[in-house]
TrEMBL record:
<dbReference type="InterPro" id="IPR036388">
    <property type="entry name" value="WH-like_DNA-bd_sf"/>
</dbReference>
<dbReference type="GO" id="GO:0006313">
    <property type="term" value="P:DNA transposition"/>
</dbReference>
<dbReference type="InterPro" id="IPR009057">
    <property type="entry name" value="Homeodomain-like_sf"/>
</dbReference>
<dbReference type="GO" id="GO:0004803">
    <property type="term" value="F:transposase activity"/>
</dbReference>
<dbReference type="InterPro" id="IPR002514">
    <property type="entry name" value="Transposase_8"/>
</dbReference>
<dbReference type="Pfam" id="PF01527">
    <property type="entry name" value="HTH_Tnp_1"/>
</dbReference>
<dbReference type="GO" id="GO:0003677">
    <property type="term" value="F:DNA binding"/>
</dbReference>
<protein>
    <recommendedName>
        <fullName>Transposase</fullName>
    </recommendedName>
</protein>
Amino acid sequence: MSARGKEADKMDKREWAEQFRQQVLARGGVGPRARYTPEQKQQAVEYVRERQQQGESVEEVARQLGMSSWTLSRWSSAARRERQEPEGAGLVPVEVKAERAVARRGGLVVHGPGGVRVEGLSVEDAVALLRGLR
């Protein structure tokens, strides 16, 4: 996907998150007593799953949606149990980048889902790390 396409997708996601927030506000607000419809819960879980695959944390996604990260994590766990997906059992694509400062030291930076970041790895260490995720 081109840089322009990625940016447009990012804007679409931000717009979707804002619309979600507005729908929740229209139903009576946010906070500890907010009530979400089953459809809103499902939409939020799908959104957080998609954003995590793109490397964002639950906390970042929760801020975008205007809700508690604890609630969003709880919903995601419940959805995983319903689908009988063991937590962390599947491999997810990660992107390995050499950053300038780290590259000078000869290391790699690995960004994983949920905001995980590992710096200063050799290629062999990165391979061992990724194999250990199986």
